Amino acid sequence: MMEDQAKLGGEEEMEKATQTALSSGADGGSQRNKARPFIIVWRNVLLMALLHLAALYALWLIPKAQPLTWLWAYLCFIVTALGVTAGAHRLWSHRSYTAKLPLRVFLAAANSMAFQNDIYEWSRDHRVHHKYSETDADPHNATRGFFFSHIGWLFVRKHPDVTEKGKCLDVTDLLDDPVVVYQRRYYKTSVLIMCFLMPTFIPWYFWGETLWNSYFLASILRYTLSLNVTWLVNSAAHMYGNRPYDRHISPRENRLVTFGAIGEGFHNYHHTFPFDYSTSEFGLRLNPTTCFIDFMCWLGLASNRKRASRQMIQARKLRTGDKSA
Hints:
InterPro entries: Acyl-CoA_DS (IPR015876), FA_desaturase_dom (IPR005804), FADS-1_CS (IPR001522). Keywords: Fatty acid biosynthesis, Fatty acid metabolism, Iron, Lipid biosynthesis, Lipid metabolism, Membrane, Metal-binding, Oxidoreductase, Transmembrane, Transmembrane helix. It is a multi-pass membrane protein. The chain has 15 helices and four strands. It is mostly helical and about 325 residues long. The chain has a domain at about 40-240. The strands form two sheets. Strands 1-4 form a two-stranded parallel sheet. A two-stranded antiparallel sheet has the order 2-3. The longest helix is centred in the N-terminal third of the chain and has 27 residues, at about 65-95.
């Protein structure tokens, strides 16, 4: 297993950078003294309400569908999740490993199936989230409450600090990747095909499922569940759980989120060591995304996995952890 072991000395600089980011509320505009506008985007409110109502209706259709359709919907859920976790998050946002063209094309297609903004926008906003976590420059600032960090942030216009700070980030690496540029250019078309048409067509064509059942289970229900699982990383994993690596930051270790988000709930670890491709010190345990990346490395489609060293992890636990692990 090829891994880059980060040096212990570099941890001090990283910790200082983290503290700078946390204190950048002043740099971001003294967030606690500023008005926090809620300019509601009613179109998003309506669309999300309709989507979740349709997902509730889809639950009623489960007994009426064929078992193969249930399995297909679950497979689509896993592919959808990988498009976010292994793709937009660990590969493009954090550059925690490198991927060859075939794997990047697959992850971009899977990301379009996820329909959570294109890779460029998702990664840019996620980098802002890390650099200015829990300030007004954080797109889904958890200090504004569970509902806001879970879904409410999509119901309102972005806080001006999010846009302002986002423009200051270096995202040239994203624009230098032709896969990212291509997906962004044809994003709407790719979403239509990957998120809705393909999941609906396969069960109907290959095993005679009704288009109605296929659409509501493999497209609508699968999409709604994948959205909420991702959002739980922004909300629950910033509010509930322990902080064995850094008690001074909000993100927590949350096992329920880890299970649902195929390995993304080790959130205190991830915000402490954001460069680590596994987002956890436990390797493959409860981490299907790490299993996927390791398998891609075995196939020769990925390489250069970055890891925090055991010495770095233990030193950080002793210095800033909450002693819970």
